[in-house]
Amino acid sequence: MKDDKGLLIVLSGPAGVGKGTVCGALRMEDTNIEYSVSATTRKPRAGEKDGVNYFFKSKQEFEKMIENNKLLEWAQYLDNYYGTPIDYVTETIDKGKDIILEIEVQGAKKVKERYPEGIFIFLMPPSLAELRSRIVGRGTETEDVIDKRMMVAKDELEMMENYDYVVENDEVGKAVERIQAIVTAEHCKRERLIEKYKQLVEVE
Amino acid sequence: MKDDKGLLIVLSGPAGVGKGTVCGALRMEDTNIEYSVSATTRKPRAGEKDGVNYFFKSKQEFEKMIENNKLLEWAQYLDNYYGTPIDYVTETIDKGKDIILEIEVQGAKKVKERYPEGIFIFLMPPSLAELRSRIVGRGTETEDVIDKRMMVAKDELEMMENYDYVVENDEVGKAVERIQAIVTAEHCKRERLIEKYKQLVEVE
Predict the structure, then answer these.
(1) Spans in chain B with pLDDT lower than 50
(2) Domain A8-36+97-203 sits in CATH 3.40.50.460
(3) Residues on B contacting A at a C-beta cutoff of 8 Å
């Protein structure tokens, strides 16, 4: 027996921890989880499809979505808007399907304010040292940028206070398993099921 | 990274729901979970081993355990005592290993009073109708006994209020998977991990 409403699962964590990789690996599994698609005003890159990678919007369209409260969260980076359209999320949940949102820490905080009943998962590096090597591993950052990232990561670690779960990303496969386990366990939570089961007893 | 203390997992549920079968199937999995061994004053049956199936105790020994508060819970059935020795449970948890306790509903209630930080899982039949057919399936009960069992089951269903999780036993394999998922998820709970992670940041 499953409860009727789907879960909103928010996967977040510090920059460089591998949110995208873990989320990508999760998508390869047969999970029955939907994936939220972000809206953005940035131009599509080669191969990106509207409604798949992003919902590509004009600046005016995006600002109208902000105005009409149609975004679960949004932010501005490098003169472009990015945000999570709320309709797709609520429609999915209402259909009884789970939906996962992969999002940076500030965005997750905003989602938490708006949708506190979501399941908030913080993806953690095995250690800050390893976080450092992962960032260095990208090979595109200077020492200064890395040091700044480390400072940011420390702040972000403190932000894990707001999360329900902490999943260590020691191995992508293991992180994926843990996330799947969390989703399964959340569906077994007594609070979610008790009303339905009570009906079962009444009907007999 | 794992938190240092193991979890006490209490698996309970109405009579006839298949606690023993599910627990037996869970034992076949590579779970790293220990299993609690009950103490009893009843005589060993053919093939039963002391310390494996039960700790076989004399009436005097058992009453001394009660007196010395050495039982997490105990009860008397058909002139015999049954109970859960507390030392094995706490030693296992302190070693950082999880331990599972398969126990009837009244016993689980007593464990909850004594160890509220345990993870309480209620094993549910897909419906009371199926619970009935399972009991009938045993072929050893009269209609009267069955009707009485049904009444008891209804009471027990109300008892699921005290549990953290409800696992439906529609298929043994699925029930086992759900229990394993719950254990994994519980180890990812933010409250369990945050102190350890905070140390990580301090050390850097």
Answers:
(1) 1-2, 203-204
(2) no
(3) 1, 121-122, 124, 126-129, 150, 154, 157-158, 160-161, 163-168, 170, 177-178, 180-182, 184-186, 188-190, 193-194, 197-198, 200-201, 204
